[in-house]
Design a protein that fits this description.
466 residues; Rossmann fold; Transcription Regulator spoIIAA; OB fold (Dihydrolipoamide Acetyltransferase, E2P); six-stranded parallel sheet; 23% strand
Length: 466
């Protein structure tokens, strides 16, 4: 009897944004037909993929630190007669390309975010090169590199998605950016704006629902710049796409991220009030409250435009919760500029937010600007901003205490019998309940609001089928 070949296993470590989470899921889908199952840890994998992010300072160094550990593991495997294939994907791969393999020769594959659909070919090439090296022959470069921006769409070369987690799924509809904010590397690592055809997005949404999704989050670097071609040759906006997805039977919740204020049009604002499945939560990055700094950032919007959008959105959907991104200490930011940001935060009131110190990203205009803000000033400003944002988030959570809301439970908590879920406003809720509720939307009474979460009591468990 012929012995059955052992199944190969892949471990993908994902850094950064939700788009990378989606990309990691799709890489798993691509590798599945090649016989790869998912490994729970790098130690149990034959292939390790680092799906990297290049947005924040020291992102590359974190990747190289992990590669050092993987190199040691690879050497141990080879000494024991086996091997480990190492791949670097994502935005660091795109930005640094062949430099990765030069700096860390243990890397077998470097692939950018627009080329990961070519993983089967890249793996075959890496195996061919590994066999040549094992035979004692020399090669000009052992690693396999693909960081081109291909003319074809990667989405046309991938199997049906399977990336549904506890009833929730990401769906990438738009990639790239044409805005060229002076602090941001995305236009250089993700390329120009591209919107997937509407029919392809709808087909993937239906497949995700068949796979168990009841919540779909639409993703894009500038998701509300979506302008996908429809079957009749017309162009659909994000608002039109949302309305069509809402008509798919089984879709209970729709979210989208990340948006740009300049692309928040009348139709999308109206959709927040008209589409019940569109959740009352919007992440709308503003970055600064100072018109002068917004101009230096090339944000292409001002303070008044942002505040006007907030008013119109809250008119369309009065219970809308807002989240945002903030950068403090951008080159040239004065105390007065920072005060403008604090006043904007105070005026708007955010349910949650992401805030960071400005960090130079090589190759961006901001990195070469004069008048860089001293580190101690950035630290103090960030602490003040985060304290204000933290108070607002806590107040928002407290405002929901005493209400009963639908919660989509997604995972178990640390304590036995504890579940963790999300409200329509994307707040984390901890409640006691059976594991069979995971992946279901359940009415939950919110009994207490905490700085970063809510405590809940599940009502009518018996209504959820066993």
């Amino acid at each position: 009897m012929t012995a059955q070949k052992a199944q190969k296993r892949v471990f993908i470590r994902t850094y950064g944004c939700q788009m990378n989470v989606y990309d990691s899921d799709r890489m798993t889908d691509i590798l599945r037909p090649l016989g790869y199952a998912v490994a729970p840890s790098p130690e149990q994998a034959d292939l390790v993929v680092l799906n990297t992010c290049h947005i924040r300072e020291h992102a590359s160094e974190k990747v190289y630190s992990e590669l050092g550990r993987l190199r040691d593991a690879k050497n141990e495997r080879r000494a024991a007669g086996s091997d480990l294939t190492i791949a670097v994907a994502g935005c660091v791969a795109q930005a640094e390309g062949g430099e990765i393999a030069k700096r860390q020769p243990a890397v077998d594959i470097v692939v950018g975010p627009q080329a990961y659909h070519r993983l089967p070919q890249l793996l075959a090439e890496a195996e061919r090169k590994a066999a040549i090296l094992k035979a004692g022959k020399r090669l000009p470069g052992a690693g396999v590199l693909d960081t081109d921006f291909p003319t074809e769409s990667k989405f046309d070369h991938m199997p049906d998605p399977q990336g549904v987690r506890a009833g929730s799924a990401f769906l990438s509809i738009q990639e790239g950016c044409d805005k060229f904010c002076t602090f941001c590397v995305v236009p250089y690592t993700r390329g120009a704006e591209y919107s997937r055809p509407a029919a392809a997005v709808l087909a993937e949404a239906r497949q995700l629902v068949r796979a168990g999704a009841i919540e779909v989050t639409l993703l894009g670097q500038n998701v509300n710049a979506y302008h996908g071609e429809a079957a009749d040759g017309s162009t659909w906006s994000l608002a039109r796409l949302i309305r069509e997805i809402a008509d798919i039977e089984g879709v209970a919740r729709i979210r989208y991220t990340t948006s740009h204020p300049r692309d928040m049009d009348d139709a999308l604002i109206a959709a927040h009030g008209a589409v019940p499945q569109l959740m009352p939560y919007l992440h709308l990055p503003v970055q600064s409250g100072s018109d002068r700094i917004l101009g230096e950032m090339n944000r292409q919007h001002g303070r008044d435009l942002f505040l006007g959008l907030v008013d119109r959105l809250r008119t369309a959907r009065p219970d809308l919760a807002l989240s945002s991104d903030f950068i403090v200490g951008f080159p040239g930011e004065t105390d007065a500029d920072f005060d403008d940001t604090m006043r904007l935060v105070d005026q708007v009131g955010f349910a949650s937010a992401f805030s960071f110190k400005y960090s130079r990203r090589p190759g961006t205009p901001g990195s070469a600007m004069a008048d860089q803000v001293p580190e101690n000033v950035k630290v103090a400003r960030l602490a003040a901003l985060q304290a204000l944002l933290g108070r607002q988030a806590h107040a928002f959570n407290l405002s929901k205490a005493g209400t009963t809301v639908p919660v989509l439970f997604a995972e178990t908590g640390r304590r036995p019998g504890q579940l963790i879920g999300k409200t329509p406003w994307l707040q984390s809720v901890y409640a006691e309940g059976p594991q069979r509720l995971i992946g279901h939307i359940v009415e939950t009474h919110l009994v207490a609001g905490h700085p970063n979460s809510l405590a809940g009591e599940i009502a009518r468990v018996e209504e959820v089928a066993a």
